[in-house]
Amino acid sequence: MAPLPETTAEATLAAADDSGDSEALGDAWDYRGRPAVRGSSGGWSSAAMILGVELNERLTTLGIAVNLVTYLTATMHLGNAASANAVTNFLGTSFLLCLLGGFVADTYLGRYLTIAISTAVQAAGMTILTVSTAAPGLRPAACKDPTGDGRVPGCAPPTGTQLGVLYLGLYLTALGTGGLKSSVSGFGSDQFDESHAGERRRMARFFGWFFFFISLGSLLAVTVLVYVQDNVGRRWGYGACVVAILAGLGVFLAGTPRYRFKKLAGSPLTQIAAVTAAAWRKRALPLPSDPSSLYDVDDAAAAGEDVGGKRKLPHSKQCRFLDQAAIVEVELEPSSPSSGKKKRKKWAVCTVTEVEEVKQVVRMLPTWATTIVFWTVYAQMTTFSVSQAQALDRRLGPSFVIPAGSLTVFFVGSILLTVPIYDRLIAPLARRLTGNPQGLSPLQRIFVGLFLSILAMAVAGLTERHRLSASTAGIQLSVFLIVPQFLLVGAGEAFTYIGQLDFFLRECPRDMKTMSTGLFLTTLSLGFFLSSGLVSVVHAVTTSGGRRPWLANDIDKGRLDYFYWLLAAISTANLGIFVAAAKGYVYKEKRLANAGFIELHVEEVAVHA
Question: Between 1.20.1250.20, 3.40.50.300, 3.30.470.20, 3.40.47.10, what CATH number should domain 29-143+151-265 receive?
């Protein structure tokens, strides 16, 4: 893949900045372990080879998710509730495994090997899925006598082997996706030197192109790939993904001689565990009245310990229990007579700065928790909204039928429209009204996204009620009836996603930036799992006692509108909790300024799928 073009002005600036092309970088190495040379490593020629991997990941994951319900109900003969849970469990596992992928990359393998191995695992999973959809013995026999009453006795259920092979393919793909998403953007940014003005400008543009490739993969998934699955054959759609993944892996590996590699930084999860364990072990010790007597970065540096470039953070009064971790029980002993360095086991004593970094993560948890419900709403766009589309008139002209899964193109389009509308219209207006140079703060953006999700579920409930009334009268309405709920959730994602990302990147401690992505992605994961749990509970409760189920296999015999209104009520209560938490939150920049600390740092910009 050729490097992406730069504007004339940027090229001129880059030429001025690149006078030191033969300079060896101090914090990056080539694949042979030698210091990387600026002119012959990294930059766009390397980053472009990494972008293709992310495009294929998005194409594959979304291409499976948006159209899996139709395969599970029509071919595998699962019910609507079971099919919806299979999709949300797949997506939830994919995002949850990002934490594992990030831990492995930061602690053991590094980002390059994590990407290469994860891509191979994803290709293996898609190969199994392709075989599962192609081999007749791995699918139940076609229905012989559908009755339309939701039980369909003429349809044979899938065997354990058939489901086992299908789920093996799905969860191998999820494992590969988790490894990729945790490392692709980070490894791409590693190809640029933040201390070099020209490369720092190019890195900012890299994240813009990263988002573009994510969006391109999403559009291809919900249009071309879904059409191939429905009209040519699912095995051909999945097989095309396998070819694309392997081609992307080949291009990625071909760039090995030009990549820049950074040393393993270690996982911040280890620091959180160490602070928590040390505080718990010393919970009975009295806290000193003077916080300056606690162990801190300057004490460690004075003792000759390598503090890893950490900047001292001010002590705060919140979460005082964690301060126990910084109590020094005994005098630290020299590690050796000649070195002059002290022995310090992080699992026994931590610095105040390390404790404060963990405290900051704790402060972010209320916001983290209250954004989970949004992704539960989001999950309905790939499950029950697709089931709605199947029951509506999808004809466009005399011969073309819109695939049910392709309705999500309105969802993706809404995201792409909302971002420039915010930048061009909403942000300038908000700057004039609030005086905030950002326009809306991260928490305000999240608020807008959560509000739009409530509106989306209320509209979806009203729309489904109208569709049921028309269906009872024998009228089939147009599929475009459900477009508004896709548009509202898409706009909500644009606000929530960017607000969350900005919040976690800005507020996470400087040395925990990699974990901020993991925190963000776990909200998606838990939102999908919450959707699965909610569907299971609602289905069990509403089918007991012979009552009319809300989530029936035949959507015309259920009350999906009640389920949407339930989600609207839950989202409304969640928004109230979010507002209460957001009112008491003080941004890190303001808190440090009030404490007299000025944190100098390079602005970091990142976008993750």
Answer: 1.20.1250.20
